[in-house]
Design a protein that fits this description.
Distance between the termini: 22 Å
Helix content: 25-40%
Number of domains: 1
CATH topology: UDP-N-acetylmuramoyl-L-alanine:D-glutamate ligase
CATH architecture: 3-Layer(aba) Sandwich
Number of helices: 8
Structural class: alpha/beta
Length: 269
């Protein structure tokens, strides 16, 4: 039976991030994707212009519908914009004792639109991070979660340790937004640090990279891989997806989730 994974996140009308990016990534890894939409955003490659949170009971009903029918092997969270949404999602996952959870703490868009309200950050730390197998903040998110100003690899490690104190079993601080070593991510497993390095791709077309990377980790976990191997494979995937990014739209184009497909490959027997 095909493995099944779940994304709990916001919808991106431009198709490059959020639910849309997650489902494409799951499919690219041969995993069936289900979704719980937490918010609807009006966005494209240039900016997020508006966002609307779905009612809490509807979010909870979506979770009930998915878990009531599908065999979810791994799940990830993305945009959870309010404390109420964080608490609703965390409560539903806690009640089901769901353990293979990747938390991508989406906080702000590339254009500067706040996707996680200030009052929701503490709720995220208190209610959701303790449920996570791994949390995947970028540099800015790691600074907000840890209170550490990150300007070196050592500070990435310090931030990872601080975030670990909030309860996640593993913390992956991503270096893609760092000015000092932008191709290296650092994982802290509660005891040791592990580094995942790749070449840095110089391109403006990086819309949805965080969503895609965390979704790739989720997909590899759903396939049964241990976390370190799942991150290693996801790192290869996101690097290649960025290297083949799509130059579409007037802003930051999206990563290419199906970079490995030729235009007519699906016609070949």
């Amino acid at each position: 039976m095909i493995k099944q994974a779940l994304t709990i996140a916001g919808s991106d009308s431009g198709g490059g991030a959020g639910i849309q990016a997650d489902l494409k990534t799951f499919h690219a890894h041969g995993v069936y994707g289900a979704s719980v939409i937490t918010a609807i955003t009006a966005q494209n490659t240039v900016a997020v212009t508006r966002a609307f949170d779905l009612p809490l009971d509807l979010i909870e009903s979506q979770i009930e519908a998915v878990f009531g029918d599908l065999d979810i092997a791994a799940a990830k969270t993305g945009m959870l914009s309010s404390a109420g949404i964080v608490e609703t999602v965390a409560g539903a996952l806690r009640d089901r004792r769901f353990e293979t959870l990747v938390v991508d703490p989406v906080m702000i868009s590339k254009s500067g639109y706040k996707l996680l309200r200030d009052d929701a950050i503490e709720s995220l730390k208190k209610n959701l991070l303790p449920l996570a197998l791994v949390v995947t903040p970028n540099i800015h998110e790691a600074e907000l979660l840890s209170g550490v100003r990150i300007d070196s690899a050592d500070k990435m490690k310090l931030a990872a340790g601080r975030i670990s104190e909030t309860g996640p079993r593993n913390v992956l601080v991503k270096g893609g937004h760092a000015s000092f070593d932008r191709a290296t991510d650092i994982l802290y497993d509660g005891e040791q640090f592990h580094e995942f390095a790749s070449e840095f791709i110089q391109t403006k077309n990086t819309h949805g990279t965080g969503c895609t990377y965390s979704a790739a980790i989720t997909a590899r976990l759903a396939l049964g891989e241990p976390l370190l191997l799942a991150i290693e494979h996801a790192k290869i995937y996101i690097t290649r997806a960025i290297a083949h990014a799509l130059s579409i739209g007037k802003g930051h184009g999206p990563t290419n989730h199906f970079y490995f497909l030729g235009s007519d490959d699906f016609l070949k027997g």
